[in-house]
Design goal:
about 325 residues, alpha/beta, Rossmann fold, 2 domains
Length: about 325
């Protein structure tokens, strides 16, 4: 791709994501940083975990992004009795043709909204592992490719809530980012009462792009330049988490890859065709905080993963200008 073609592709990224963000802001009040993270995960071919207490708009955010894109959307309501085959699909014997045929499950969509994922059993949660990492499903020895683009936006309540199962480490590591919406400020909550009090803004939300366009944007983001020093910076950050006494389980190699992809998407959203250290720093906490397991001493001191990652950022040398 020539420099001119790359510039035009990035212009399209800015144009489409600006429209997407504007569309989402009509429903999600006062949370621009959350919308930014959701779009970053979409462009970086990642999956997003929305964790917070009930009633703050986790499912609304996922449904808003899904409705803003003209593509296939499926919603999975995770419950204790949900089976893995409900997600992946099942082979059923067809009496007419005297053979088994595959009936796709709810995972076969461009955007999959998983509501309250940690209310399903660990066995059912594990059905998502292959889907999220490899974009495919294997049932009865046969592999089926999922549509592209493909993103899982899952919501979960804090593990202290009744009837929840904590997500295993392997499952959390497959989510590119985790965000917490938090409570809105007073002004945003007043606006929400005005806009949501009589009708749902989702009813009037029209798609602003389609799956084919999103696929083009993803391809454009892959071409964003990342220098050797930026890649070294990401690896240095990962090693700093693995050698930190406050962290029992540090960032995995998958975490470094996700951070690189997210940094490219963050740069593209800023209109640049190259990654800066600022992009890495801006996206580090949403991308890595849910993957780390803190030591017992850090947990007793009530330190959060975000606090520890800020310390890591302060200690790791930033690449010099001209990288």
């Amino acid at each position: 791709m020539t420099a001119g073609q790359r510039a035009r592709a990035l212009d399209e990224v800015l144009e489409v994501t600006t429209s997407l963000a504007a569309s989402m802001r009509t429903v999600i009040e006062g949370k621009p940083e959350v919308i930014q993270t959701a779009l970053t995960a979409l462009l970086a071919e990642g999956h997003l975990l929305l964790e917070d207490v009930p009633g703050v708009g986790k499912t609304m955010l996922a449904k808003t992004l899904a409705r803003s894109i003209d593509c296939s959307v499926r919603r999975i309501q995770f419950t204790p009795d949900l089976l893995p085959s409900d997600i992946t699909g099942v082979s059923v014997f067809n009496q007419d043709v005297r053979a088994f045929e595959f009936r796709p499950g709810a995972i076969f969509a461009n955007v999959v909204v998983g509501d309250e994922i940690n209310r399903a059993s660990p066995k059912t949660q594990s059905a998502l592992l292959e889907c999220m990492e490899e974009g495919q499903v294997t049932v009865d020895g046969r592999t089926y490719t999922l549509p592209h683009p493909f993103i899982v936006m899952a919501t979960q309540n804090p593990i202290e809530m009744e009837g929840t199962y904590p997500l295993p480490e392997a499952q959390r590591d497959r989510f590119m980012g985790r965000v917490s919406l938090g409570y809105p400020n007073a002004r945003s909550e007043i606006d929400m009462l005005e806009s949501h009090g009589q009708r749902s803004p989702l009813d009037e939300l029209a798609p602003v792009t389609d799956a084919a366009t999103v696929s083009r944007l993803i391809h454009a983001v892959r071409l964003v330049h990342t220098s050797d020093s930026i890649r070294q910076y990401i690896v240095d950050l990962a090693h700093a988490t693995r050698d930190n006494s406050a962290i029992r389980l540090g960032a995995s190699p998958r975490a470094t890859l996700h951070l690189l992809r997210a940094a490219r998407a963050h740069a593209a959203l800023a209109g640049r065709d190259y990654v800066l250290p600022d992009d890495v720093q801006a996206i580090l906490i949403p991308v890595w905080s849910h993957r780390l397991i803190l030591s017992g001493e850090a947990a007793q001191a009530r330190r959060s993963s975000a606090d520890v990652l800020r310390t890591v950022l302060d200690r790791v040398r930033i690449p010099s200008p001209g990288f």
